[in-house]
Amino acid sequence: MKKVFVVFAFIIATYCFGFSQNSPCNQASQFCTETIYNFPAPVNTGTAETGPNYGCLNVQNNPVWFYLLIDQPGDIFLDIHTVPSRDVDYICWGPFTSQITPCTSELTSSNIISCSFDASYQEWCNIPNALSGQYYILLVTKYDSIPANIIIKQNTSIYPNPGSTNCTSSVLFNNLNEESFSVYPNPVVNSIFTINYSSYLIDKISIKIINTQGIEVFRKLISKNMESIEIQIDSSGLINGYYLVEINDGQKIIRKSIIVQNKF
């Protein structure tokens, strides 16, 4: 068994990053067709990693990666749009036998299923004739860095026999629970605060601190097979205000708020 204990002191300018520092292809979030995704689009977070053939995507700004594991066979038709209306684009590759091994050498032109790079606020990703057990990789990008939310959902009205994804049996998962997750002291004043997760972890997780502008000011990836996690953060590197502390294992996200009230 292992226990992680880490102390971090940092300056805000060094760690002001967003989704460009979020999961790359091999840490893509799982996409569930039964879920409607609605999240703030990354802002000023750079471009997607080098390696894949991005097909029609001439630029890959503000990337967000997903993978789909097919459960019921059929056509998967995804509605991808932004609110308010801003340019959004995407590319989808597949089919594969894993969500990890295709990244990034198998994301080739011959494996591109669907791709769009136009100025529209709405795109439609079609995965035709998907079969049970197949994996697909989806990259969604936002051309500009004007704040907007990205909404992704399956449209089941287009095809008579729509497929669906498996959201429970693709990989080992942590079964994150809110009772094991704590952030203290709160509020924090001129001191270190602690991020603690007290349950056993069987797979990797990411821990982030996000400010009120939706910008990550801290991120750390924790390896698998950990007995517990305890991370200490020096609040002197943070501007006073509200923050979200997020723990994410790719299956579930838990967030806690914290207030920084330094009086230096």
Describe the model:
With 264 residues, the protein is an all-beta fold. The protein has two domains: 3-16 and 171-260, Immunoglobulin-like, CATH 2.60.40.3080; 33-154, Sandwich (Jelly Rolls), CATH 2.60.120.380. It contains no helices and 17 strands. It has strands at residues 3-8, 29-30, 37-40, 64-69, 74-83, 88-96, 112-116, 122-130, 135-142, 149-154, 181-184, 192-197, 205-211, 216-222, 228-234, 241-248, 253-260. A five-stranded mixed beta sheet has the order 2-4-9-6-7, with no helix packed on it. A four-stranded mixed beta sheet has the order 1-15-12-11, with no helix packed on it. The N and C termini lie far apart (40 Å). Residues 1-22 and 169-173 have low confidence and may be disordered.
Our count of domains comes out at 2
- How are the strands of the biggest sheet laid out side by side? 2-4-9-6-7
Structural class, please? mainly beta
Biggest β-sheet strands, sense, barrel: 5 strands, mixed
Tally of helical runs: 0
CATH domain class name of the largest domain? Mainly Beta
Uncertain segments are: 1-22, 169-173
Q: Report the sheet-strand fraction.
A: 35-45%
CATH fold-level name of the largest domain: Jelly Rolls
Q: Which radius of gyration do the C-alpha atoms yield?
A: 19 Å
In short:
The chain has no helices and 17 strands. The chain is mostly beta strands and 264 residues long.
